[in-house]
Amino acid sequence: MLVQITLAAAGLALLTIAADHLVLGSSRLARRLRINAVVVGVIVIGLGTSAPELLVSAVAAARGDTGIAVGNIVGSNILNLTLILGVAALIGPMAITSKVLRREVPLAVCAVGLFAALAWAGLGRTAGAVLATATLGALALLLRWARTPRGNQELAEDVATFTEDPAVLDLPTPGRRPPGWFEPIRSAAGLAGVLAGAQLLVSNAAAIAADLGASQVLIGFTIVAVGTSLPELVTTVQAQRRGESELLVGNLFGSNLFNSLAGGAVIGFASGTGRPATAGAALLLTMLLSSGLAWVLLRRGLRLTRPEGAVLLATYVLTLLAV
Fold it and tell me: Phi and psi for 46 in degrees, rounded to 5?
């Protein structure tokens, strides 16, 4: 089992680093191609930051490890709004505007609810088609909201900041950015790395589950979900240190939205009709309640305090103990 644990850890590391370069390279390439900043922010960066969850779940479902696929999405959704949001609140109190709570947050909670209902019934091709359609509808709404004068300006500034920052592990080129021809190579290498990391992680996580006699859903909910959520954790800590609380909250709920809709669609299509992916009602209900708890805490005075962050962290610990 030690070999499987080592290889799974290597897959996690490769997945995290490669996903960072995939998103950075894709967003820089899109800006060089003069693609609108709103499109870059909502689609390229928004979907790109969920690439680890999407590809890991796709690989797992295609291998027949549907428990890992669903457990990864459910676990990531819970972890984003309990552990990661709680850590951010402990770093410092968070203040957000009512606009985010009126639009992006309810949309994400509805997406989680739709995913929960379909995952309980079974994620096959029909469910995949429903979730794919919902993904397109959600993207259209997000693009429409972002195209308002204020939203356009804010998103353009966020995209500029994101593309100017280096990757966590970047090239040793102090004082200058890599040449333009390098970004397509960075993007392709990042995608290949994410796929390789996903394959390493999923195959060895499945072997660990078999050796321990644990369910695949449990392994996906814990080990795999923590690994695929590492990029969100790093981004969240950086954003909170810069005082970008509103961007942070939007990113976490946005991650849940794309995980649930795009991730669920990928699982449905990859699973096919032979063995639809499912999850237990208790786990899905926990995911819904964690989303509702984060929403309620944020609505109270449009702030999230350190004690409330501690409540979210305690919720995550209790969830682990319950499963």
Answer: -60, -50
Helix (H) or strand (E) holding 296: helix 281-299
- Token output for 122: 């079974």
Tell me what percent of the residues of the chain surpass a pLDDT of 90.
25
Are 90 and 309 a contacting pair, CB within 8 Å? yes
Instruction: Note whether 184 and 25 are within 8 A (CB).
Output: yes
Give the pLDDT confidence of 235-277 residue by residue, as tens digits: 777 677 767 777 778 778 888 999 999 999 999 998 876 678 8
CATH assignment of 2-322? 1.20.1420.30
pLDDT at 93: 83
Report the run of H or E that residue 137 belongs to, with start and end: helix 125-146
Q: Which residues contact 71 (CB under 8 A, 6 or more apart)?
A: 216, 217, 218, 219, 220, 221, 222, 224, 225, 279, 283
Low-confidence ranges of the chain (pLDDT < 50): 174-175
Question: 279 and 64 in contact (C-beta within 8 Å)?
Answer: no
- Residue 21, CA distances (Å) to 17, 49, 168, 191, 237 in order: 7, 10, 9, 8, 18
Domain spans in the chain, listed from the N-terminal domain onward: 2-322
The helix (run of H) or strand (run of E) holding residue 56 is helix 51-63
